[in-house]
Specification:
There is one protein chain. This protein has 202 residues and is of the alpha+beta class. The chain has helices at 5-22, 29-45, 141-151, 156-167, and strands at residues 49-60, 63-67, 69-70, 76-77, 84-89, 92-95, 115-118, 135-139, 178-182, 188-192. Helices cover 29% and strands 25% of the residues.
């Protein structure tokens, strides 16, 4: 494992808490989870981490979770509206959004678990997801670059990434159970640390 499950859970909860506070759209949540997650890994672990986006498919407890658009020719693509983002770092694939899959509107009911696997485990094709924990990624660099360029124009994105990195602490260090932030009008708000408990890993 690249990072301990405890730290994975902390990163997920920090990002999750900021998203809840911002009323962020769950459909675009994977962009936050991957970008902020990569930022935290670089900041706290000095690991070269990169957010990736495109088609993602998971076999989770025998249920296929697919983030993709169906094309007219019968194929699927991750370059359209239904895409997913994950983190690639030091030969590992990490999806910090995995514990929140049960809340994603298009996802099936699955337990909250850590998703952190060696990239060498990626399935050869979308049809090769035979057992639980199998996954397939097809990165769409152009579509992702376009999407992130528009998304990053929002000034708050950089601020939130810095807040996330500032809030996170590696275990066994103590983490604050809430964080006080000021909004653009100078009003102070308290953000509680929220998130699903983890039932192991995929």
């Amino acid at each position: 494992m690249l990072i301990k499950q405890t730290d994975y859970h902390r990163i997920y909860r920090v990002i999750n808490s900021l998203l809840i506070n911002e009323n962020a759209d769950p459909a675009s949540a994977s962009m936050y989870f991957s970008t902020f997650g990569a930022f935290i890994l670089e900041h706290h672990y000095k690991i070269k981490a990169k957010p990736k986006g495109g088609l993602a498919a998971y076999n989770l407890d025998g249920k296929l979770i697919l983030f993709a658009d169906h094309r007219d020719d019968g194929h699927v693509t991750g370059a359209g509206e239904n895409f997913h983002c994950w983190v690639e770092a030091d030969g590992w694939a990490i999806d910090f959004m995995a514990p929140a899959f049960s809340q994603a509107a298009h996802a099936l009911s699955v337990p909250s678990r850590m998703f952190q696997k060696p990239l060498s485990f990626v399935a050869p094709s979308i049809n090769d997801l035979s057992k639980s924990g199998d996954f397939f990624y097809k990165s769409e660099p152009e579509a992702t670059a376009r999407r992130f360029a528009d998304w990053r124009k929002h000034a708050m994105i950089g601020d939130l990434a810095s807040i996330a990195a500032g809030w996170f602490r590696k275990s066994p260090k103590q983490m604050q159970s809430s964080l006080s932030v000021s909004d653009k009008d100078g009003k102070s708000r308290t953000i509680p640390l929220l998130g699903n408990s983890l039932a192991g890993a995929w």
